Amino acid sequence: MDMMFEYNFAGVLKRWYYEGGPLTRKEVVAMQYLGDMDEQAAQYDAQPKAYRIFLDYGGLHLISDQSWQSERVCAAIVDTIPVGEPVRARMTVTEEDAPGVRLHTMLTLQMDAFDNFGFMPSLTVRTAEKLYEQGFISSPYVTTPDAGNEITVLRRLSKRATKTERSLYRLIAGRMEVAAMPPEKKQYATVTAEIAGLTFTCRWEVRKPKPEYPGTSEQTIPIVEKMMAPVKEVSPISYGFVPTLANLTGYATLTADTTHPDMPYCHTVHEYGTALEGLMRKGFITIEDGTIACTPEGDRLLLGLAPYNLAHSILVGQYGADEIPYGTITGRKAVKGFGEWISDTVTDILRYTPKNE
């Protein structure tokens, strides 16, 4: 199916004046996802400024839960708040278990190897395959961290192992040690005060938690200083390689099939790490200092892809192909349906794209 997609879509790329290597289905999904990220980031940047009130009490800051679009209105409210007078507040300390560390899947192994060693996904996949073939680790082809279905160390590594193999082996072994540890207890303190009819809150993590801390207590705090400042909602969009890979895989998995994120008949090696790497090799994105950015060629490709929701069509078609093992559809029928869709789509794109002179 990748061969069929590459052959048909290559004509579109040439009409778009791109002479590089053909794109796989996963690379198109990844590229359109990066375009969606750009749109979401632009929406956050376009948001108007809002003002909040900050109250200093001994080095910590109470922040108003409410915000105001008008600087003048916010300033008038600040003027009504007294400074130097004691204020009644409530402190609540809660205790939570830190999220437990689970054993590696192929996705988390790629992420961890990139973070720790700068390994690109294809190198991680190749190295994991070698370790598995030699019997040093369990199968790396794991997509969900189910009990008994994770990547684990099976026996001591050979002294003849390469530096890359040793690094990845230790990463897997280290993850096993951390996963076996009991979850860490974390404590968070929250101070809440009602001042001038407004609610103010300050929250932080307790650095040195103690068993006696959790609970609620009434306190009196002095307001030392008051101020207002423009704030913007922090954009959740991250262009870091690791969070982008995690979010892209989650998006594709949710859209296609919650139990099978990998595509049938696909050239791309296991999930979306190598798809992002393929986009880098073909000149559509750069990955520098762990951050992804589109090249001018990539921006131009996104403009061409924008009118056609290829990513969704590819992923929905993948869902149908996932039914092959259950007998509800034959492989031949799935491939035929995919071929008809890509042929119709390419014909439609070329109809509205001027020919090269």
Describe this protein's structure.
By secondary structure, the protein is an alpha+beta fold. Helices cover 43% and strands 19% of the residues. The protein is built from eleven helices and nine strands. The chain has helices at residues 2-15, 25-45, 71-79, 106-117, 121-133, 163-180, 241-256, 273-281, 296-305, 310-321, 331-351; strands at residues 50-57, 60-64, 86-97, 185-195, 198-205, 215-222, 225-231, 285-288, 291-294. Strands 6-3-4-5-2-1-7 form a seven-stranded antiparallel sheet, covered by helices on one side. It has a two-stranded antiparallel ribbon with strand order 8-9. Helix 1 runs parallel beside helix 11, helix 4 (106-117) packs across helix 6 (163-180) and helix 4 (106-117) packs antiparallel against helix 7 (241-256). The longest helix is centred in the first third of the chain and has 21 residues, at 25-45.
What layout of secondary structure does this protein have?
Blueprint: H1 2-15, H2 25-45, E1 50-57, E2 60-64, H3 71-79, E3 86-97, H4 106-117, H5 121-133, H6 163-180, E4 185-195, E5 198-205, E6 215-222, E7 225-231, H7 241-256, H8 273-281, E8 285-288, E9 291-294, H9 296-305, H10 310-321, H11 331-351
